[in-house]
Amino acid sequence: MSLALTLLAVCPLASASERLGLVASAESTQFVQQRGQFQLHTLLTEQRHPKTWNLSDVAAADPAQALSQLLSVDEDVAIALAALADDPQRMAALQAASAAVQGALRDGHRIYFYGTGSTGRLAETLESGLWRPFWHRLQADPVWPQLAGRLPPALGERVRGQITGGDRALISSLEGFEDLPLIGALQLRDDGIGAGDVVFAVTEGGETSAVIGTALAAADQRGPGTDRVWFVYNNPDAVLRPFERSQRVLDDARIGKIALPTGPQAITGSTRMQATTTSLYVLGLVLEDALRALLLPQLAPADAQRLGLDSRDTLATRLRGFARLQQAVAAHAPQLARWTQREAQAYADGHHATYLAGQALMPVFVDVTERAPTFRLAPLDRTDTAPPASWIRVWAPVDTPQAAWETLLQRPFQGLEAARYRPAFEQVDDPALRQTALRSLERAGGEQQALYDLSWSADNRQRLPPQPGDLGVLLRYADEPLDTLARQWWQTFDRAGAGVLTVTVGQPRDGSQSVPVPAGAGPDIVLDLPQGNDPLGLDRTLALKMALNAHSTAVMARLGRTVGNTMTAVQPGNLKLIGRATYLIQAHVNPVLESARWRQRHGATAALSYAEANALLFEAIARRAVLPETGKLPEVELAIVAALERLDSGNPLDWPGAAQQLRDHGLNGYLRGWADAAQPQAPPAAAVDNGQSR
């Protein structure tokens, strides 16, 4: 049993005790007693990974070593994918999914990927970052005129990726939506997905209500049969079955299952990392496999080779090939460390980073937007945000907001039309969920597109000019031309005295030399990747994703935004995150109570129970809203310090005092003051369970 599960096992649910001097609020009592289905601390993806146990300390001392730690966790993905390739039963499911995609495309139907949060961005990456760009390249290829008439019509338009809440949710979370199964069903209908289409409902945890709603609604459309609706998830069935909504899908014979457990994440619960990497790669390979089946019979060998299509590639060989890709990215940790140090220093000094990306915009945009909820940062600024709050900007080398959205999505922006969703939301039984969802609906419409400018526009140049000490990063694929605007952007940052660097991924598709970066570009990070067929650009997209995930996590760990490998800055904005925040309070308080120093001072002390931790969390939420002393400090961190100070001194809970401790020392420094309790002992790396044996 993992340390986290052991910790929970000895802390049964109970009422908040007198020792804290705290009576649980009605909200806390309701969560503990009635929201057991959202207390997800038993999930494999919510456990701590031993390889990154002391990440915050390592990142502060040696960013290259921190990056190596983070990238080494992707070895779990390689192991899991190799095991998948060797498992006849699970491979049969992937082959059936590929066959279903092929059949649907041949018959004029659509492929629909649906997810929430990270898996929603995964879904949109499959459409806008991989599928649509391939067809744009193919239509510009010399073979297209003779090929077009032999293919089913409009294939480039037949893959749709959808995120819960629509395209506005790509920027930041629309709270309340993910907890509602009905929104998944409503979006399925709104997107015009019918019985002949193939649906992939993708959830990292395997318990996301909105995604489950999509899977069940799609199954209701189709009736018997398991080849047109697929449930894709990253936890073992055994740990999901206690959750009724998950069990319902797992037991539904109408829904095919693609189980992809890899183990704990590099940052505890941060499924934007290994879980999403795994699902994106596997689903990208399903699309790639279908593409080979559709196109190879129509192409001469030379044309197929130029497009990266080879009959010798199979789902199994490509799954096994991930290991080489992972090793190649991990080998660049020393190079990436230069970038990590410079960006962390820019933020520490009160400056900003700006990323510019064209063809690589989707993976860059996804990583940037996912930093905000993971590390409690301001989301990307709207055009009317004054003064700017976000530490980072991400822009495309185009000069209008409309062109930037088209660069990102490769199609028109699509929001939720409130009139179609409001009547159903108004019928939600839970008052809190109902009001939260209705508020979010006001920020989900198509008009939201105009509030965000992701371009190198005249307005952005005037409103957000680079300053000395800022950092500009150009991210590009090796065969990507540098247009005039990209060069102007580079020169503007250079002349302003901002730091500049380039990150180049992969090799040109045709084997020619890479397009040179601007003269005087300075440090150039080049991610050399293994040579191989990559028709959709899946490998280079995954390589950039893994590098960005590790880099951004190391930056934030270096700045004290993690404690060990836990995200104590988490914002408890939905039911799942309230559960995670509660567990994190326990996970950091109880090792202190068990430490030698604490025992010398107080003797044996009962562990903090789940109910006590949850009561502290809701009290911290309330106090943070009204006490200016707490400022922007995270609720979890306030609760940890307030609880330990109360239990140590016997004085009443002192929220301003807890805030002052955090301002003076940070949570890492405060816990370090308890000596051996600063970090509980990590289990050996060999003890990591990826769930394959269950």
Our measurement of the CA-to-CA distance between the termini, rounded to an integer number of angstroms, reads 13 Å
Level-1 CATH class name of the largest domain: Alpha Beta
Structure summary, number of beta strands: 10
Kindly give the count of domains: 3
CA radius of gyration? 25 Å
Largest sheet: 5 strands, parallel
Question: What is the annotated CATH architecture of the largest domain?
Answer: 3-Layer(aba) Sandwich
Helical run tally: 28
- The parts where pLDDT drops under 50 for at least 5 residues are 1-14
Helical content (DSSP H or I, runs of 4+) = 40-55%
Percentage of residues in DSSP E strands:
5-15%
In the CATH hierarchy, the third-tier topology of the largest domain is known as Rossmann fold
Would you tell me the structural class of the helices and strands? alpha/beta
Strand order of the largest sheet: 2-1-3-4-5
Could you characterize what this model shows?
With 694 residues, the chain is α/β, with parallel strands linked by helices. It folds into 3 domains: 168 residues, no CATH class; 247 residues, 3-Layer(aba) Sandwich (Rossmann fold), CATH 3.40.50.10490; 190 residues, Rossmann fold, CATH 3.40.50.10490. It contains 28 helices and 10 strands. The strands form 2 sheets. It has a 5-stranded parallel beta sheet, sandwiched between helices. Helix 17 links the parallel strand 6 and strand 7. Helix 9 packs across helix 10. The N terminus is likely disordered.
